[in-house]
Amino acid sequence: MGLATSNHAWRASSTDMTSFEAMALDPKASLWKLPILGHTVAEVWFSGEREPRLRGVPIPALYVVAYGSLSDAPADPEDPFSAPRTKVGFFGPFAYTSADGVEHPLNARGAWEALVAVLALRGTRITTATADRYGFLNLEYDDESRLACGPDDRDENWQLSAPGGLFLSAPKGGGDPRILDP
Fold first, then answer.
1. CA dist., res. 65 & res. 156, Å (int)
2. What's the CA gap between 81 and 91, in Å, rounded?
3. Omega of the bond prior to 52 within 30 degrees of 0, cis?
4. How many domains are contained in the chain?
5. What is the largest CA-CA distance in the chain?
6. Distance separating alpha carbons of residues 10 and 146, to the nearest angstrom
7. How many whole angstroms separate alpha carbon 86 and alpha carbon 33?
8. Per-residue pLDDT of the chain (182 residues; tens, 9 = 90+)
């Protein structure tokens, strides 16, 4: 079984922008080191809804977007300045630990004012990135801040798309976040 294609996944292989080669994670491993180290956070944004909607109701979301080096980018004749992109979406409870070590239990469904602390990630580089087969995601940054998110019983709680066609999504209630072909 391979990773499924998705409209949300970064679809370019490292050699050809017209083909899709999904990055495979070792199916026997219980913890995966994600290939996004060194990516720099350039965007943090809040959204009033994400697709698909849950039973027709908009779902609030927090997105953290980081970019790799242009030297790591595949040649794209349409956009020669495109860099490898990692996008993480949070849709429910998660934890942000700031550079000073203070843990902020947050919820993307909560008041946006409470989420403002995450804006401090802008300009930081990812130093550790792991996901496990139980639906937990851990991202650490060069200023010693951290984002951690696990599964939620209500809905899919986080998604990550990254270079190489990597697309992970924590299923409702927990479990393997790899998106597998049927």
1. 19
2. 30
3. yes
4. 1
5. 44
6. 23
7. 14
8. 233 333 333 233 233 222 334 567 888 889 999 999 999 999 999 887 655 555 666 778 999 999 998 776 665 656 655 788 999 999 999 999 999 999 999 999 988 899 999 999 999 999 999 999 999 999 999 999 999 999 999 888 999 999 888 999 999 999 989 875 43
Q: Residue 143 corresponds to which tokens in the numbers above?
A: 């200023």
Would residue 5 count as lying in a domain?
no
Cα dihedral 160, 161, 165, 170 sign:
positive
Q: Is residue 82 part of a domain?
A: yes
Q: Which two tokens stand for residue 68?
A: 């790799």
Distance CA 88, CA 65 (A): 6
Measured CA to CA in angstroms, residue 30 lies from 72, 94, 175, 180 at distances of: 28, 21, 11, 16
Short-list 172, 94, 173, 168, CA closest to 131: 168
First-last CA distance in the chain: 8
On whether residue 20 sits in a domain, the answer given is no
Q: Beta strands 61-67 and 40-47: pairing type?
A: antiparallel
Whether 1 is covered by a domain: the verdict is no
Q: What is the distance, to the nearest Å, from the Cα of residue 176 to the centroid of all Cα atoms in its chain?
A: 15
**Residue 88 lies in domain:** 31-60+68-169
